[in-house]
Amino acid sequence: MVTIDELEALLAGDHELRRVELKGAGMLRRNGRFVAKIARATMAMGNLRDGGLVVIGIANDQIAAMQPGLNDAELAEWSDFDLASAALSQYSDPPTWFELHKFVLSNGARVVVLEVSEFEHDIHVCKKDFEGVLKDGQTYVRARGEPRSVPVPSSAEARELHTLAIDKGVREFVRRAGAAGIGLGRAVEPGEIDTHAYADEVAVAWADPTPITEPAAGVLVPWVSTPGFTDVAVRPGSFQADRVNAGQLERFVLGHTVSIRGWPVPFVDQRQQVQRHGNWIGQNILSGGLPHGEAWRMFTSGQFLHRRLLTTDLRDTGELKPDIDGVTGAVAVWDVLLYMVEVAEFGARSATTLGLDKVTFDVALEGIAGRQLISGEFRREIHGPYIAAANRFEASVTVDVTTLLENPGGVGVDLAQRLLHQFGLNVPDEVLFEQQDATFNRKR
User: Fold this and answer.
1) Cα–Cα distance between 205 and 361 in angstroms, integer?
2) Model confidence at 175: pLDDT above 80
3) What are phi and psi of 398, to 5 degrees?
């Protein structure tokens, strides 16, 4: 679920994004053209992998200023979920599904955000005309270049939409087979030669310092001196140097980005140049607005590498502070859990496209010596103390793709547990599943 901080960070860039459409202000009951434009945007977001946000109350020429906001009458109408849902569903087949959030931004502007979910089984198709805005039978998508909600503009967007529908069908079949007790695969381990080849890529990718390992002054919160970060590798089981065409690497990453929590994993900053190194590409990113830092690498072998600063190192809030004197920092349970679920989902999407039979996840927490494991949420408590003595906790898991596609959330929980256990924390898997489901608003 998107938060105010995340929304304001997205607006701070002062331009629309593929997953964020801004529609200004307008009434729901007495402005049919405005409602039709909102309907077009929700259909387009629903046809995008992981969906996206439609922000009502911010004009696309006043993005960074976060203006004009909604007046009392507009806010009252758009805050009524049943009214909004009924108005929008008359245009889409099947109806779009969204969560409705009402926010008061830091400048006092009031907005309503429709957090639109990716289509469940069938692509959203327009079923009703509105002159100059909507056409019956048309399919709307978010264009890749200039972010707009438009009829399918090219073969690239059409292929992307069809691929998404096929991928969802494959994964639904795998889930149903698993529920019926039909095993489609088995766990396997990578060979020694493969492991060494991938390790050589890792060494090349991280040979130079990055803002993650050596952040600039003022990036970390005052009580943290040494950065803590997650260090992840997602790789095919067998090594093949040219599994992905070098010219398609950026599109591959963009096409498999996971945005189920709002902020994408990985974040590909299209305002800065991607570094190209022959058989791999990457970016180092420190984002303004919402404190965030990450570095990612993608190889033609299909190996994806990701390092990301811990949330506890970047946000000066009571929930994310350690409560024991003398510790060097904190690691939040939810930060580890939710990120591992996103990593598993990225692996599942990559495996589907590449036609893999197994995927290996190498995951680690780095820079954690002397840190305290905390819940990170006042409403959830853990009873410690749990303090890391080692500077790095790591785990490696190889799973068959059937298991991964059937239950990526379960793989994510397994990865998280392997790291959390090293702090000494032992909580039932179901506790983590419940937290995952509540955050992502979905059921396994």
Assistant:
1) 17
2) no
3) -110, 125
